[in-house]
Every structure is written in C-alpha cells, then in structure tokens.
Records
---
Amino acid sequence: MIKGFPAEPEESIIYQLNVINFIKHAIRNFARQEIISRKLDGTLFRYTYKESYERMQRLANALESIGVKVADRVGVIAWNTHQHYEIYYGLPGMGAVMVTLNLRLAPQELAYIVNHSETKYIIVDEDLIPIAENIANLCDKVKGYIIITDKDLKNVKTNLNPIYSYEDILSKALPEYKWLNLDENSAYAACYTTGTTGKPKGVYYSHRNLYLQTMMFAAYFSFSVKDVVLQLVPMFHVLGWSIPHASTYVGAKLIFSGKWNLNDVEELTKIMVQEKVSLTGGVPAVFMAMLEVIKKMVEKPDFRRTRLICGGSEPPIALMRGFWDETGGEIIHSYGSTEAMSNSTINSFKPWLKKELSEEELWELKKKQGIIVSGLDAKVVDENGNELPHDGKSSGEILFRGPWVTTSYYKTAHTKSSFTEDGFFKSGDAGCIDSEGYLKITDRIKDVIKSGGEWISSIDIENSLISHPGVLEAAIIGIPHPKWDERPLALVVLREGFQSMKKEEIHGHLAKKFAKWQLPEEILFVESIPRTSVGKLNKKLMRSKYQDFFTKS
Amino acid sequence: MIKGFPAEPEESIIYQLNVINFIKHAIRNFARQEIISRKLDGTLFRYTYKESYERMQRLANALESIGVKVADRVGVIAWNTHQHYEIYYGLPGMGAVMVTLNLRLAPQELAYIVNHSETKYIIVDEDLIPIAENIANLCDKVKGYIIITDKDLKNVKTNLNPIYSYEDILSKALPEYKWLNLDENSAYAACYTTGTTGKPKGVYYSHRNLYLQTMMFAAYFSFSVKDVVLQLVPMFHVLGWSIPHASTYVGAKLIFSGKWNLNDVEELTKIMVQEKVSLTGGVPAVFMAMLEVIKKMVEKPDFRRTRLICGGSEPPIALMRGFWDETGGEIIHSYGSTEAMSNSTINSFKPWLKKELSEEELWELKKKQGIIVSGLDAKVVDENGNELPHDGKSSGEILFRGPWVTTSYYKTAHTKSSFTEDGFFKSGDAGCIDSEGYLKITDRIKDVIKSGGEWISSIDIENSLISHPGVLEAAIIGIPHPKWDERPLALVVLREGFQSMKKEEIHGHLAKKFAKWQLPEEILFVESIPRTSVGKLNKKLMRSKYQDFFTKS
C-alpha cells in the first residue's frame, strides 16, 4: 500500500462506518414507516420503525443489564421476525457480536460454532428451544438463554438454564441508548460456513464490511422508501442476503415472513399481493413453489414492479419465464457466498445486449450468475493461479477480493488454503467469465469433471436432468476412467409414476442439449441422493461410493 | 472510539477504497458504453468507456513521464469535456492530487489556490489559456502547463512556459498502467471554497470520502447502466456534484456539455431530447432558461423518466411546476457544500406524505432542501451549540458530520472556527428541520436577520421578490434598528419597462405571503447589487454600506 498526499492531518478523526447508522437514519426520516411480522399463528403483527427502534435501544440496555459486554459473542436462533430484526441492530449496536446460528445444522455443528466463537448468551425463539436444548450440554460456557416469547417464563417448558424472557428484559430496560462509536473494523456478526468436509469455518463481518456491502446492494437494486420488502431469505443465511439492511438504509417497508416452509408459500404469495411487495429474495425452490401457486390463481398478481432476487443456485429458464408470463415479474439471478457476502454478482441486462440478442439468448444469459458488482476484484484462475481470459470458455476457480470480502477464517488452519496472500478469497466455485463480464458457475472446484482434458459442467447437466418430468433428483459426479481420466456418472431418483422409465429416455433428453462427449457415461437409478446437513448434494460421499465404477469393469 | 471484537486479525489487509475502482469496474462490464463530449464548435465527439480508459492509462503514464509523482498536486482549468473526465481518473489514479480550479475566480484567488496547494503542473484547455496566463507570474512554483488542444503546439499562442500538449504526451505514453494500491485516506482532489471574506479555504477529498459519497449518491438516484447522463454542472464545482463518478459507478452513458453558457441552453436541451437524457443537474437559473426554451418548443420533450437535480439555491415552485406540466420531468432539490460534498440532503417524497398533503403543500415541501441522506449526522444548533428540536420552526446553524465530510481546512487558521472538536462541520447556513426530517435553509448564518427576537428568512423574501415580473434582482439584508435590534432592508433592481414601479406595489406583493413583521422595513431601488467573484450576493458589502440606514434618521 502506498501513502499518497494525506487528505487531512494524521490526527484527524476518520468517521467510522457503523451499521447502527442505517437505523438511526431511518428513524430520523422514516419513523412512521411500517414493519410487519408474521406470527406463528399466521396473523400479522404491525408496528413502525419508531417502535422498533425503541425496542432496539431497550435491547441494547437489556443486554448490558444481564452482563453482555463490548466484544462478547451472542448467538441467535430465530425465525424471520421483528424481534430478529431488533436484534440485528440492538445487539451489535452495543458492541457485541451477533453469531447467526443456522437452525438447520446438526447439533454437533451448532455446538462447534457456539464453542468455537465462545458465545456467551444465546437468544432463541420459544418455538426453537429444542435446538438450543440439543446443544446445551455440549456448550458449557454459555451463561444463559434469552427466550423470545409472549408467555410468562413460568409457562415456558425447557431445561435450559438460566433463562431470561426477551420481552421481560426489554420492558425493564430504558428506551434510550447512547450508541457506541465503534471502530469500523469491529465485528458486527459471525457467520459460520459448512461444507461437506471438516468443521464449520467462521467468517466475521466487520461493521465496515457490512456497511459497504449494503450500500452497494441498495444502489444495484434501487432500494427506496417506496419499496415494500418481503424477507423470505432466512435471516441466519449470510445476514438474510443483506435485504433487511438495504431496506433499513432507505426506510423501506419491511415484512418478516416468520416461521415458514414450502407449504406456506401460498399464504406468503397472498401477503405479497395484499401488501404490494416490490422486492423479495429466495432460492429457486421457493420461487418454483410460488409459481405453482400463481399458476392456480384466477386473478394473477401484478409483479411488474417487483424485483425477485434469486440466489443459491441457477434459476431454470422455465421458472423465470413463468414469472414473466404470469405476473410480469423479473427474476434476477444473484450469486454470493458466506465469505464474499451476498450479491457478488448480479444478472442485469445492458441496454445494448437487449438490442443485440434474441429472446432465447437473453433467457440463456439470465441464467448466468451475472456481472461482478462494482467494488469487487474478481478473476478466474487455472490450477497454477494464472488468470484466465474473459472469453466465456476458459474455466477455472473464481476468486474474489474487495471491501466486504473476508481475508481469513476465524482461528482455523483453513485460512492458508482458502485465501491468497494478496487478499483474494478462493471461492471453491469453478466457472468462466464472458466478454461482457457475465460469470457462469459450472461446478464446485472439487466436483469438477475433467474428461479427456475438457471440463464438463455438472450443474448444467443436473439442471437439464431435473427439467425432465420424470426426474425428482439428480447428481452428476466425475469418476476415474481408464481412457478419459474421468467420465461423468449420473445418479437419478425417478418420480412416482415414472419408475419404469428407461435410461435411453434420459439419455435422449440430454442428447438434445449436450455434445456426445459431455453426456454421462452411465446413468444409475437410485433410491435417494446423499445430502449434507444444509441440503447440498454430498458429492464427496457419492464419489467415494462409486470411485471404481468405470475401472472395475 | 471503542474497539470491539476484531473481525479479522490485526495484521489483515484492509481493502482500500480507491476511486479508480469505479472506472475499472465500468471497463470490466460496460466497455462498450458510449461517452459524448460537446466540442467548442458544437459538434459531438463520441467514443467509448474502453477508449476513454486507455487514454486515462496513457495520461497516468504521461504524467509520470513529465515528472509528476505520487502526492504531487496538479491543477486543472477545463470545461466539461471528455479530457476532463479522463483527468478525473488518470490523474488521481497515479497518486497525484487533482486541484480543481474554478475558472470564474479572480486571478488573485486562483493564484492563491495554486500557491497554497503548491500545485506543480496545471492542465488547461486551450480556450482557457488566458486564465492561466493571468496567474502565471504570481505562481512561480508551477513547473509546467499541459495544454488540451487538437492543434500542434507550435500553433498555440501563449506565453506560458514550459508547455506540453495533452494529446502529444498521451500518444507517446503506454496504453496500460498498473494502478497504485493507494491508502484510502490519500487525497483524491482539492477543492477550494471562496467566501465573501478572507482567502479561499482548501478542502481535500480523500479517495475514501469520494468513494462513499458516490455510492450513497448512486443509491439515492438509482443510477444505472440504462441512464443517459448530461453533465451540465461544471466539473470544477464540488467534483461536478459527483455526477461523473456516480455515472461511472454503474456504467451510465455520459454526455459532457463542453463550453457553454445560458445562451447554449437551447442547443443543450435539443441534445437532451436527441440522446434521451435521463439524469442531469444544475442550478435554478439553468433550469429556468431550459424551461423558457421548452415553452417555445412545439413538440415537448418527454422527461417523465428524467431526474433533474437542482442545487445551489432553492428552486422556485413555478420552475418545478413548469417542468412538470411541460415535460413530466421532476426537479429534485438537493443541497450540499464544498466541505460536506454534494447531496447532503435530497428532497424526495415519502409515500405517506404524498397521501396526506395537498398538491399545494407538496409543492411547498419540494422547495425545501430535503431529508439528510443516510450516512450523515446532522443537527441544527443555537448560538451556544445546543441542538434544536425538529419542529420545523426552531432555527439555528446546521452542522454536518459523516464519512465524506471534511473535518479541517488545509493549512489555515479557519479550521478552529468552522469545525467542532467532535468532527462536525459548521456549515454557516441557518435553517430548521421539520418533524419529517426535511431541512429548510433560511439564510447564511452571518446574514441572519433577528427582528425583535424573531428570525426572518431573507431567502424566502428574496425568492418572493424575484417572482414579481418587475424585479430583476433583489437582496434582503438585516440592518441595525433602534427598536427591533435589526430590521430587514430590501434592495431591488427593476427590470426594463418597470422603472416607474412604486414601492407600494412591491410591498403589496410581499404582504400576500408574509406576516407584517417579516416585511422589509424599507425598499430601495438600486442600479445593481454587489456580488462576489462566483456570483453570490455580497451582503457584507451591502450591510456595511447601509449599516446606519435605520439609526441615522
């Protein structure tokens, strides 16, 4: 780093970027804006930013009153609720670190995170107490549990100990809090990432990281006070993809989805229509379910002004087209990771491509991960770390660096292998960038299939398999092959009613789209496909099981 | 400042915010986007971001080749041209500081700035050589002048020495430059502010200041690659109100207005229509002239998607209404200063106010400076520095603090009186904030009129005076008064054809809008009103001239 001419004298105060400023700003200007929270019984709780802010301040005071100190780590196990939102500001605002706990992790993983982060207190939804109970014995350094409940604590059944009532401690606390002037490199939250191997790895977001990422995101999606935002993305996933913070940044109306699964999508869709939601985000499976609901609706929702941010995996064209045809709503593909935060890329069209490409080409383009957002450095590199050209073909690992990309894991040896010395995060994703800057992810690097020197994208083939009406689940793995180094093997779970389908049918389906050398060498029908605790395909396990499939014969 | 839990180990690399990243990003994704520059002969020069970027890199190399080093200061005297845009990145990108020189300043002011900043080289448009010549003898430390011209240097008449040709040194330089990893607190540019008293004061913007301000601005105005942006604001004014940088941030199409004055507004309006401009900015006088042009057009421009950012002073309702009625375009009032950068406030409507207020009330609201943007701390304080309530009445001085607000002037004693110890900039503007957060500026603090303990807004009365068809110019000043401490005195320049107008007519015009005690105690018709070198009302001079007007009699 080179020092230029100092803009101000060395002793000047550098104004620190602090996430609490988002809500302070919202209150200054948008105190009357509404916040809605979907309760367990499905009713909608409504209050305002002003009321929320008072409770955030009470929470900060309350946490201090029970002994939470600056730099302490406090875990959160919660649905998407207004209390969770209050915690987003009240907890890190008093200088503690919010440890976001994914309620879908296995107990040993959760316990590892709690212990590794030395979490002192855990805030937990009454409905999720069993998750906390499952790890309590493994986490003997936790000093207490704060239960989010409307009930009197006496009526809450749990063996957690000691326990506090979130509402109780808030009601006893003062409604005003003098927010700290925190060093911007202080941790705002810790988010642990889980893979198919090893222990979860801790990514600690500083206030600065999150502040800058939020500003970028707000700019890219034109968040404004006129927006009505439905928070579907779990708030423990990469901070809910930054949607709550970007909404607060501009004072948008917020709707928290509460506890929900795919069966609740019909109800959530109705809320979208009723409250005129203009922005939401989710994984393809959620939008798929929503599209099914919409297809059955007599009066179609008007989503022409609604941005549907889709992440997690590639949205199928049928999904995007379906939304467009039924509602006028645009699904926008975005890609991120725990380490580089959400929205490392965003797929939006450039005016000239809209003119130059055919409709079919535009839909194909929309599947890609998108252009790398301003602020990030990114490159695709080969095995030796050499940068590859942006030609839409040269595939390698994609690396990110930037103002909100972490440069290390908290206290683990993994840092060395996952980050370069000049601050790039090695994403573990394989892909290529085209001449217009659009990134396409083809595989996880460790799942890459190299057949005769050429890369085969397992993601493309899997997506094509799943688009067949008879296929419920599918995975493509690369297996050692005597002639071609590796060849792809397809594992397919058939849907009910398609059990008699032949391999040739699948093969023919794929052959319409892929070159012969890209087609799976073999297709196996299986009962189920192994997945990790967060539902990702466990290809490591599959490869191990089938490793000598092509060599033994 | 309190240190929380460190998000990453102390020795970690903090990714530095560097303005050069905006153009690097634009090139990565929007290399084909067009940039237009209006030449002296009125023709339009067109090239692309890609071509511009190559020239920025050549410029960085060229500056090094003539001896410019990291941290050196380099002055720029230029119109709004594509070369000026190249300088915006090429110059600070190689670590030097761009000293923006306002070509409308008096020679002694310009010379002071050049000497005070120890400017080493000056880049100057051929057309503006006389300005540089006027100060050359006063600035003996300047080592050379770089002339922006298409001509061979032999054919450029000047006594500046030594001189370089901008095009020559670019053509000889390499087209690739490895941008520096600059410390983000390094100065990007220096902008000197001039008042009615004393020497110009130097505000040095760091890369970090400008980076953060640009992101905020891009978010607030939803800049996107689909935008076509006309740069009317002089690029030496608070960095052209950040419009060039925000456009680059998203890869918008840019049009530079070249050399122009109010007589060129018709031509510029035609360019707006022809190129489908979706965003521009200017002072009310420019938009007034544009509205006159539009009123005469048979086919009205469609500005329904065009944001017209209006700063410098309060836009009259007639102006805003005129644009709305004639074109569907919205004039958006924004307020800034050299020290707090542009867009400290932006006047945009909240959904609920649109519902609650009448049309007339909304127009009145639109005149206000707007809500304070996210990221800034702001307060209105009384003479003792006590914060005043947001009640829309309590007036005092408005103070700003934030990630892009300077906390000192470069090497002057003024810093002590203009900044608080906790980092607030004392704007010198008097105003009040209402319960919805809208700031209204009523006066310069030093021009405030206190009559019988009540504040009278000279700005409101001046604007009302100017709205009278017979009034060409007007100023309201506070003059010592034996009974009321101070009373307002109006100085009015009448338009041709209205020379016989009576005081009573003016008085009656004001009496429709203001309370009796707010009305000027006396109205004087004068030949002209004294102004500063940048065209502001010179009230200090007026007060001095009329100081005993109410006491002598």
Note: The CA atoms of residues 384 and 469 of chain A lie 41 Å apart.
---
Amino acid sequence: MTFFDSDYTAGAHPKVLDSLCRTNHLHTVGYGCDQYCKSAAELIRKACGCDDARVHLLVGGTQTNATIIDGLLARHEGVLAAESGHIAVHEAGAIEACGHKVLTLPHYEGKVRAEDVKRYIDDFYSDDTYQHMVAPGMLYISFPTEYGTVYTLDELTALSRVCHSANIPLYIDGARLAYGLAAEGNDVTLQDIARLSDLFYIGGTKVGALFGEAVVITSNTLLPHLFPLIKQHGALLAKGRLLGVQFEALFTDNLYMEIGKKAVAQALTIRDTFTSAGFSTAVNSTTNQQFFSLPNTLIDHLKHCNISFEYWGPRGAEQSVVRFVTGWATTNEDLECLADALKSYKR
Amino acid sequence: MTFFDSDYTAGAHPKVLDSLCRTNHLHTVGYGCDQYCKSAAELIRKACGCDDARVHLLVGGTQTNATIIDGLLARHEGVLAAESGHIAVHEAGAIEACGHKVLTLPHYEGKVRAEDVKRYIDDFYSDDTYQHMVAPGMLYISFPTEYGTVYTLDELTALSRVCHSANIPLYIDGARLAYGLAAEGNDVTLQDIARLSDLFYIGGTKVGALFGEAVVITSNTLLPHLFPLIKQHGALLAKGRLLGVQFEALFTDNLYMEIGKKAVAQALTIRDTFTSAGFSTAVNSTTNQQFFSLPNTLIDHLKHCNISFEYWGPRGAEQSVVRFVTGWATTNEDLECLADALKSYKR
Amino acid sequence: MTFFDSDYTAGAHPKVLDSLCRTNHLHTVGYGCDQYCKSAAELIRKACGCDDARVHLLVGGTQTNATIIDGLLARHEGVLAAESGHIAVHEAGAIEACGHKVLTLPHYEGKVRAEDVKRYIDDFYSDDTYQHMVAPGMLYISFPTEYGTVYTLDELTALSRVCHSANIPLYIDGARLAYGLAAEGNDVTLQDIARLSDLFYIGGTKVGALFGEAVVITSNTLLPHLFPLIKQHGALLAKGRLLGVQFEALFTDNLYMEIGKKAVAQALTIRDTFTSAGFSTAVNSTTNQQFFSLPNTLIDHLKHCNISFEYWGPRGAEQSVVRFVTGWATTNEDLECLADALKSYKR
Amino acid sequence: MTFFDSDYTAGAHPKVLDSLCRTNHLHTVGYGCDQYCKSAAELIRKACGCDDARVHLLVGGTQTNATIIDGLLARHEGVLAAESGHIAVHEAGAIEACGHKVLTLPHYEGKVRAEDVKRYIDDFYSDDTYQHMVAPGMLYISFPTEYGTVYTLDELTALSRVCHSANIPLYIDGARLAYGLAAEGNDVTLQDIARLSDLFYIGGTKVGALFGEAVVITSNTLLPHLFPLIKQHGALLAKGRLLGVQFEALFTDNLYMEIGKKAVAQALTIRDTFTSAGFSTAVNSTTNQQFFSLPNTLIDHLKHCNISFEYWGPRGAEQSVVRFVTGWATTNEDLECLADALKSYKR
C-alpha cells in the first residue's frame, strides 16, 4: 500500500524518535518545566528571530486553538476566521464549547482578505445594535490554509495592519507551517510570521513529531496566565519533556525546514505527474497537499493499484476531487508507484 | 540523582517504547480508528472480563476526567467527589470550565464513604430548595486515591449500591490503577472494578506509557456520542494509533500488572526502610506512593545525598510530610541509595 | 413625538397593568409556583389545544432562547437557524456562551426551507469527517420571522416532518407570535404551532406585557429538569407571580390575539399609506413590522415631523430602508400623524 | 393568612408601583438607555457619594451575580465566598455554568474573616502546585449575609485591605442592602460600602421593587464591556426603563432606606416578642430576617393560627429552626397577629 492520505498517518521522523529513545530513561520534572522544553524554546526563539518571545509546547492542534482563542477573547468577543477555516468547520465545536462564536469571512482558496476583515470590523461598529452582537476580538488565519495555499508577504502585511489598527490580535495556525514556508513561490519567512502576527503556532504533529505544537507569543502582554488555561483545555502533557525533546530535535540542524522542503518537492512532483498526464488541479496549492479533479475511473484504478489517498467529493457526474498529501514518511518509491499506476491507466 | 518524585518523571517502559519504535514507519488512519487501538481495546476488554465494554484511548488524565464528567452530567448536575479528590483540587478548574460544580464529600485518607454519599443525596432531595442547588449527578472516586489508599471490595460494593439505587453513575479514576490492584492487602480485581463501576479509566501515563488513559465503559447506554466530546475536551490525538500501540504493549503478557506489582513492592520496601529506622508514615498507604513524617534535618540530609522526592508540607516545627513514589523506572539500586543515605543520617 | 420604533417602547397593556396593580399587595410563593402562574398555564394550554403541555413563564426572549436551546442540545450538537435568525445575529453570543454553535441556513425573507434543512442534515451525516463537526441537534425558527414574514401551514408542516424524520426537535421563537397569527393571509393557528413544533414560546414582552415569555412544551419527554436551567440562564424571576398575572390577563377574553389583530391592522394601514403614495416596501411583511425603501429626503422630513422609526441601512445613494412597528400602544392618532407628515412631503 | 416567609412574596411598594403606572404609556428606547435609567443612576451615585461610579440596572440577583463574577474573573480564576454564601449554595450552579469555581471559606454566622481570606491567598501562592489549582480572583461577600448578620466597619475595612493588597476586587452582594444598613448597631453607611468595595449591588427585588438590582461600579477600570455580558447572562430587560422607573422611585425621598428601617424595626419587634416569651434566637441577626429555635408544637400552633413562615430544619428531636422575614408589605397588624398567636400557645 502506498499512502498519500495525510501527513499524520506515520509516526515520528527517525531523528525525532531517536531523541525520544535516547532520553527515555532520564527523569525530569513534569508539565513542561524541564531542560528539554527550555532548550526547544530557545532554539525556536532563535529560528524566529525573537529573543523575548514566550514559547509553550502543547499536545495538539485542536487543544492549541481552543487554549489560545479562549485565552485571548473576552466573553463578549468572537474570533474572525475564513468560513473554510479549521476552527469554523472541523474542531467539533471546541471553540463554541469555550463560549465563543466563530465569525466567518468569505474565503478565496482558503485565504481571507484584509479588506474583508476591515469591512467586517467597520460594519460591526457602525451598526447601532452592535452591543447585541458578538464583537470581533481577534483574527485567526492558517499558514498554509486548509486548501494548501499561502499568503504572500504583502497579503500578510495587510492583514497584520488591519488587525493592529483595530487593536485585535492576529493569530496564525501553523499546523503545517513547514510546508507553507517551503511552498513554491513563497516569499514569507518564519521571521515574517513572528513579526507580523501577535502569536502563532509551529505544527509538530504534521511535520515529523509524534504530536505537539509550539505556541510562539511575540506580543508579550497577551495571555499572562497561560499555564492553567493549557491544562483546562486539555493541552497539557504530564511528561511534558516529550514535547521538548521532539521540538529540540526538529529545530536542530534545520530538520523542521528540511522536512517541509522535501515533502513539498514531492507534492509538486505528484502535481506534475498528474498535470503532464492531462489531469487538472482543483486548487492552486503550492504546498504538500495537492487537490485534483480526476475521472472516477482513474480513482478506481489507483485504488486497485493500492494507492491510498483522500476523497473530497464529486465534481459533476464523472469526476471527483481527491487529495494527495506528502510528509516526512513519503519516499521516492511512493512517487514512482503512483507514476506507474497512472501510466497503467487506460482511459 | 535518585528520583522518587513521581511516577511520571521518566519516559515509557522499554517494551512500550519498543512497540512505538517497531511500528513507527507504518501508516494508519488517524484519531483512534486503526488496528492497534482495536487490538488494545480487545485486550482490555478481556482483562476486564467485559466482552461488550466500549474502550476509548485518550491523551491524559485531566482530559479524560473533563470528557467523561462533562459527558455524563446534565447541565443542572454536579459531580460528587472527595474534597481531596483530584478533580476537586488539581484540575485547574477544568471541571468547572465545562460548567459543572464539584460537590465535595469528607474524605478518610482519600476515600469517601457510602453512607456519606447516601446522606448527601438524601439530604439534597429532602431540602425544599433543592431546585436552586446543584443536583448530585454522578460519583467520582479514585482507585487508588490521592493518598495511596485503596477501597476494599466491601467498600466499593457499598458505593456501587448507593449510586445505583440513586440512579447515578459511579466513575473510577484509575490514573494509578495498576498500583491499586497490586496494593498490599487489596481484595479488588480489575474485573470487580469493571463490574461495580459504570465506567472507569486505566491509567497509562503513570504506569509505563509515554501518555494515555484507557476509558472502559461498561454501562452501555452512557455516553452515546463520545467521539466529538473527546475532541472538544482536548483528549483526542491525531496519531491515535500511538495510544493503541502503547496499550497493546501494556496489556500483552500482563505487563501492566507487572509494572504495578514491582513498583508497589519497591514502595513497601521504602516504607520498611523508614519505619524500621524509627520514622513513621503519615498515611496508611499500601501502594506506590508512600508518605512519611520526617525530621527536617533528615530531609536536608537526603537532599544532600542527591535523593529527590516531594515535599508536602510542615508537620509541627521540626518535621515535614514528604512523598516517595516508585514507578516502572525505579531500580533496586535506587532503593539501595536511599537506604544508604538513611544509614548515614546522624540524628 | 409619534413612535413607530418598536413594539417594546411602551409599558404594559392597560388590562395587564390593572391586573398587576390589583394583585400587588397579595403574598404568594416565589419562583413561579403560585396560583397565577398555574392559572395562566391552564389558560395557555386551553388556547393551544394541548391539555398536557407543560408551560413555563420566563423573564425575556434571550433568556428563553438560551435556556431552551442549551437544555435541548447535547454537548456535541448545534442549533440550525436562518442566518438572519435572532439567535444567529442578535443574542450577543448568548447561545455560544452556553457552548453551542449556531449552524446557519440560507434565508428567504427570514424563512428557512424544509429542503435546505433536509440537505444540511443529509450532507452532514454523509460527510466522512462528520464526527469532527458540530451535529445539527435541533431547528430554531421564528414565527413571524425577523423580517415580519410568516410560514404557511404547508411550509410549517414540511419543516415539522423533516425535523421529526431526522429525530431533532423543532423549536419556534414566538417573540411576536400574536402578530404572526394575525398576519394578512396567515393560515396557521396557535393550535397548529403547538401541534407541529415540539416546543415554542408565546412572546409577552412585545405583545402587551411589561416582560415575560411563555414556553409551551408539547413533546413531553423533552427538558425533564427545566427549573434549574431556567435559573442558571437568568430566566427566573423571584416574584414569579408577576409573569402569571400578566399572562393570565393576556389569555383572558382573547386579549393576546386582539392586541395582535389591532396592531397588524394598523401596520397594514401604514403600508397602504406609503404604497398608495408611491413608495415601496422592502420586504413582503404581513405583520406588525413594515419595511420601506424611502428617499433620504423623506426620511429627514418625517423626522422633522417628530415621527420616530428605525433606520436599517442605505439602499443606493438616495434611499434607505426603514422599519415601522406597531404595538398595543399605537393609536389611530399616531397613524394620522404619519399620514399627515407624508402628505406634507414635497418631492 | 399572615406572611413572614420572605421579603419577595408581595409586589412593589405603592410608590414604586405608582411610578410604573404613571409612566406606563410613555415610549422610551429599550435596554436601559432611557432617561429613567439615567436619572436613577444619578440618584444612586449621589446616595453613594461617588460622582463617577458607573451604575447598571439588572433584572435579578442570580443574573447580577453571574454577570459580575463571570465578567470579573479570568478563565483560570475562581471566586472566594463563605461556604454559606448564596453563590456557593443557592444559584443552581449558575456560577459554575459560566466556568468558574466557587472557592469556599469558613463562615461565622454567614460572615467571612479577613484573616481567612489572607491565609487562603497566601497558602495558594505558596503551594508549589498552585498553577494546577484555581486562583482566587475576587472576593464575594453579602451585606447583610444569608444569616441576617452585618459586617462592622472594621471588619469591612479589613476585608477591603486584604483584597486590595492581593489585587483582587471585593464585590458585595447587597440583595438586602437596605436591611443591612438599617441593622441594629450597624456602623456601615452606603458610602462606606461604595468606598470599601470595588463594586456592589443594591437589591431592589427584596426591598420594594417588583424586580431589579442596581450594580454600582466604583473601580472604573473594571468591566469595560459590560453591556453584552449583561445580555449573555440573562440580566437585560428589553423594556429597561422599568428598572429605571423603579430605582428612581426608591432613591427619591429616601424611600429605599425607609423601607429598610421600617422592616428591620418590625423584625426586631418579632425578635422581642419571641425572646420575651422565653424562646431563643438561632442566629444573632440584627436585620429583617430573624431565626428562632422553636418547639415543634409551637410551630404547629402558629401554622394553625394562619401564620406563615419558613422552616429551616430540625434542632434536636423537639425543636426546629424557623425564619421570619419582614418587608415593605409587613404591617403592624401582622405583628399583632403573631403576638396574639404566640400568647394563645399552651406549652
């Protein structure tokens, strides 16, 4: 079987796993107060170019989003997000379970536009009944988006400006950050992310860790009492050093970025394989997730060839949209299997 | 340094870690729907003697308590617990953050009594203003308790009866279940736990896993829609198979119980070392946590000898209560270090 | 000043106020357990044709919506509503504050369509990731809607069928129920409302009471423990009999329906006044709220004539949408003032 | 029937009701933005000696407590209160439903002691695990307490100092404030309450209003976005002017204080009636609630004489504790009825 279903179907990158094994027998204090978490935080601060950012290592993405969003918002505020955003669609109501409305904006292949954010905020405060509605208290975006697209530096700068003139924080969900930074044509650096947002997270689960996300808070007045919130929202690990050990490995010798580069290169190869065979992409993704509109007969054929990938939905009667994802565990043999399977398809 | 601080200061038992390494490169579906989770569930069902119990593997203890308690209680209900219970003291308000009051009962070395539970419920419903108060909707106990004590089979049976005649579920927090089952003089089996409670969890984090707790639901009408609740409460892992792999290892060849037995035997050795040297226990614990009242000069001496343990609080001017905990990583050399350190103490 | 701003700008209908004055010195038990609440409930049951419905009298509309929706939904569920629905827009996040997402449907002048509800539910359960999303747990509609429109009997029957085949309750917000029942061309009776929904509320605040809404629960298995929920959600009044006294008055001698009829007739007169003068309605409302697109110069002129009404928003450069509302306190003199003001307008 | 059950069994004081009737036909804007609310706020500010206090008029006591406490606390904080405090016992879990734990302190006839508050806070922050517990974020007290007792000026000053040195707000529940200010031997003025607390509320429901509580915020940085919180917590009234009209009446010609004085004098007469007949008080209350330990035979006899009061619980086999409460509606004839009934009792 060859797997392109997702970037969280395999375990940890070998270097990450090695670190876990090498440190397994050591005793440390719990809950993230150990030397590995400190060291990981220091490495992350350096990579971000933010000497005084606070870094917290949390268990997973849903937990991180719930902790951060609930921590940032006042009771009367909601979070602005693309209507396709993960928190708007796929958090099982975890944001609302904390008491907050997700205020949705139109999306353009997963991205929101600064002018839409500005208009939402302006319209809100110019409505006479605004006190009876949910105030926009922060902006959530993802980099890359759920559609595999990335914001340009100009777009990100514009969003940052709109947020800061409205005095609301900009939070970036970086569940797949490495793949965004390695995206074809991307002009945004990790330092830009750190500089333009108020806080963001660097995804580990989908980029070579067993689990774990690193929250980086650059606006230092935000979230003064984060620890108990982390615990309340299920984002705390008793053996917290497991997160430190993993992120230390990921931020040593540029491993995190290398994983991103390799997987994106492989994803673009997949894209070329399909497009040069005459099939078309469904979204202009430049990252490790590629979406295609394929004939249903081809989809059946690929499955027959033991190629596993994700079905997204029908497009007309004879085609469907599917998703192919690469990750640290994707091999060049996997790509060849796919290419071979495609060659053997008779239209 | 010799560590007796807690049972979650080291990584995973070598057999658990081996399983994680051996399966690391495999691809599986996410969120606990893989074959390892299924296999672990099957092994746990067998160990519990409950062929039709539902088993869910969750990330950690706080997450499990929040998910289960919030899932079981109606909006107007609270959870009965010992005033020393983990959910009453050390969950950072995670239960209240879900909207529920913890209704506290007196404790006797960490245990609650069936007659106190009955009286609470009877008094509640005989109060004319009960509709203005929080109804007791379930009972939470821990086995073993936060004081290292265990319920006898008679005590557990009595609690089960009181709950069932009041028609409220009995939930057992088994964060350290293996150590309770291996307790000196214990007459309760895992099957008894399964039979007498409506649901409980088998702790992995403190018994040889990197992390993870196995919820076992024996009352099958409870919690019909658990999956989204698991996600909402931060208890879901994307790479869910990590939980399956670990619990499969723990429930193969009786490993879970063996870890418990070894650690309890070591803890009782520590107890004997102290008591035969003339020091007294602070609690009648029969499990892997031992509490002593020691002279402050001895405490200083042990620290000087690089023995690490937990300080609980002063007892009078010259003594303090301390906690020593054993776990899978405790070695006999650790015990000898402690014994040597104690011998070299000059009163 | 002549007021058409809303139906809650004046106090109580004189008969309601008389009842409050007449009973003011009497002593009764609190919290709605008195004879007036019982008598009001009985009158309401009769009017609804539901001998065994449960009737609860709550303080206000937001409180009622929060209590009922939070009480009906399981933790993993959200409430389906028109994207223009009051709970989706104007409850200040009170529904999300209880932990629930409002799942929005397209609206057609405030109304939702049975086929859209069905499609939402079908699509939800046929999505492979549905467990990661918020399940549709009930349908909220308002009668009349926020746009002053009413469902036909056929439409309401279709919605009821869709809900019941999906096994989710249908809840009707009747904040302005009397005006809906009195709507021009309406073919739905109070008995139909009771028969086709699972529960609904009869609005008092906007129909002649000082405050108060009567919840009628016809599906008797729903909301078994409502009292503490009413208190938790701020919907309980210590001097609960004030609600009973008012609803007793409203449901004596058909007063509730008479208030509706009078105000709707007046609103339709206003509509005719504008349309026969050549101005157009902005919505096809048949109830006590009328929306017009008027030249901005006319709007200024009316204000100059001391006519007060609500501004809704611009329509193009020279026109705006405005709302005129009638209620128990609207007099025929008010209508004449408006007609005179309109006559004196020079285009 | 002669009623001493509670101070909320009758309607409004005649002057309050007159104001409601006199203003009933007027039109005003909704939600508390009208001239009556403004005028009431101004009168209250003057009475409190706080020219720049913010005053908000809310529907009821539970709603007020939930709004204020939820608004003041951060997510990781709880509210300190006497274990007998209303929010700890009789709010149906409304505080926990907002996500906050009530942290209980020992009580002395309903009062908490400054040294206990200080010790709680000191102990909390000196505990190594404090980040895993709920932080004390504010202090809630009631004046008078649920036992009818009042704090002395010294006690209140000490509590204020402890709170302010710990940097947590002091909030006073004044549901029965008038009766506390009129208490026998009381040395605390309304101005003291305003000066020593950060915010408090002046109860209307139990002191002559149909309903309504006036929140007075003297620490002006607190609760900057209160309006939507008021709505979220069910404390907002559409016809908000009803609250303004009532509090305007209560704060005109000293009515609020007069109601308190009269009722307290009557309560003390009741106390004297019982004690001079040889019966004893159960609590040293100096306000409008009086608690007695009476023989069960006397209790039966009084009921026989159509005297209505509240049963609190048994005291031994032959006696029970009962509560007698006076209010604006208590008449001197009521007191005579009681005295006569007592005289006719044969031991």
Note: Chain B has two domains: 2-6+256-343, 14-253.
